[in-house]
Specification:
Belongs to the aldehyde dehydrogenase family. With about 475 residues, the protein is of the alpha/beta class. The chain has 14 helices and 21 strands.
């Protein structure tokens, strides 16, 4: 498979002919050769997006017409669901069931949800105090938006950026992670097939250099980035040249609190799902499991037994429950964190070593006896690692849960509504899930506190990310 760049409605090689490759994480085999965008390509994409915004009527298109185009994209995603799911699994590694029910379904739902918003982006009338003056507020597109997506859910996260940006009348340049570009390439093809005008959606495949160039480009008005906190900080610095708008959804170290009254079997099952979805390669994965000390042994024993029974394998195998990690480099990083955990005194209960098979597989790893100061309790691992921390005093939980640089998500497991509401209010996180795994929805806000990012995506809050309010003052002479 060979893929090119998509700029101004045309597919082409990179201006300098540069290319990179992507590989199947289940085998290490070559999957595709992709064009690697350079500075000239970034310039061309920015100019194409600017021209489509200004000269080709995308911004002034009737909202109902934009809505029909987005709805058509959703229909095409569903028509090609089997193909997209298989491609996502081959390129990223996630089990085919996850690709079908989370990635592909989620992508279609985001386009449908924001298609509905096209005709409902309203301004306001302001009761100002100037006599004889009418004041109203328009919501206008931000402009050219660079959408930089991660490798863990490439199709769905591309959709949750693309759909609101287009619904609000912006033009876009999509830059997928170099590890997993293939479903984004296919999504852009479907956008073109749906009838989006040339230049409205542009695609640049490539590595970090292309992302940096987009963040710094003077013709780009906004960057929406999902990825690591360290790269998020680089984007903030790069974007300062023209003070472009920035939305960041970054890392996480989500606490999961298992109260004394929790249904332990339900908590074990839910935390396995919340910690091991996509092999733990989820920003909101449950990665600090706080358990009442009187129930910690029971919870840990059941958790380890359930984790060790999960079947590792290629995502295309319908029996697979845990797929591979995305790359060999990432496998090495996860393994390094686990070795650090053992060196710092955490008790290894199950897992703890690479799987003896081709591909980038790591079995679920459970640690007991973990303390708040250990590296595995503080740093984002982004892998199938479940550290169990005991607690004695429930009054300490909020402080311990908040003792982190991150604040993306948190989880509570309890039968007591007072406990649930109190802790949900006290924990500094953008989303708190009670008795359930962390699955976002197109209609609900998504984003974090602290080093987990800036702004919110999804729901009506995404309209704030992709529009600018403009005040209009009109003097009405008597």
């Amino acid at each position: 498979m060979q893929t090119g760049l998509y700029i101004n409605g045309e597919w082409s090689a990179a201006a300098d002919g540069a290319e990179f490759t992507t590989h199947d994480p289940a085998t290490g085999d070559l999957l595709a050769t992709c064009a690697e965008a350079g500075p000239q390509d970034v310039d061309r994409a920015a100019e194409a997006a600017r021209s489509a915004l200004r000269d080709r009527g995308w911004t002034t298109m009737a909202p109902s017409a934009r809505a029909r185009l987005l709805w058509r994209v959703a229909d095409l995603i569903e028509e090609h669901a089997a193909e997209l799911a298989e491609l996502e699994t081959r390129d990223q590694g996630q089990p085919l069931g996850v690709a079908r029910t989370v990635s592909v379904t989620g992508a279609a739902e985001h386009f449908r949800y924001f298609a509905g918003w096209c005709t409902k982006i309203e301004g306001t009338l302001s009761p100002i105090s100037h006599p004889g003056t009418l004041h109203y507020v328009r919501r206008e597109p931000v402009g050219v938006c660079a959408l930089i997506t991660p490798w863990n859910f490439p199709l769905m996260i591309a959709a949750w950026k693309l759909a609101p940006a287009l619904a609000c009348g912006n033009t876009v340049i999509v830059k997928p992670a170099e590890q997993t570009p293939l479903t984004t390439v296919r999504l852009v093809e479907l956008c073109a097939r749906a009838g989006l005008p040339p230049g409205v959606v542009n695609l640049l495949t490539g590595g970090p250099a292309a992302g940096r160039a987009l963040a710094a480009h003077p013709r780009v008005d906004k960057v929406s980035f999902t990825g690591s906190s360290s790269v998020g900080r680089e984007i903030v610095q790069a974007s300062s040249g023209n003070l472009k708008r920035v939305t960041l959804e970054l890392g996480g170290k989500a606490p999961s609190i298992i109260a004394r009254d929790a249904d332990i079997d339900q908590a074990v099952e839910g935390n396995l799902q919340g910690a091991l979805l996509n092999s733990g390669q989820v920003c909101a994965a449950y990665t600090r499991l706080y358990v009442d000390r009187r129930r910690a042994d029971e919870f840990t024993e059941k958790l380890a037994a359930a984790a060790s029974s999960l079947r590792l394998g290629p995502g295309l195998d319908p029996r697979t429950q845990i797929g591979p990690l995305v790359t060999l480099d990432h496998l090495d990083r996860v393994d390094s964190h686990i070795r650090t955990g053992r060196a710092e005194g955490a008790e290894l209960v199950t897992g703890g070593a690479r799987a003896d098979r081709p591909g980038f597989f790591y079995p679920p790893t459970v640690f007991a006896g973990v303390t708040d100061t250990m590296t595995i309790a503080r740093e984002e691992i982004f892998g199938p690692v479940l550290p169990v921390l005991a607690y004695d005093d429930p009054d300490d939980l909020a402080a311990r849960a908040n003792d982190t640089d991150f604040g993306l998500a948190a989880s509570l497991w309890t039968r007591d509504l007072s406990t649930a509401h109190r802790l949900a209010a006290d924990i500094r996180a953008g989303a708190v899930f009670v008795n359930m795994p962390p699955i976002p929805d197109a209609a609900a806000p998504w984003g974090g506190f602290k080093s987990s990012g800036w702004g919110r995506e999804m729901g009506p809050y995404a309209l704030d990310a992709y529009t600018e309010p403009k005040g209009v003052w009109l003097h009405l002479p008597s």
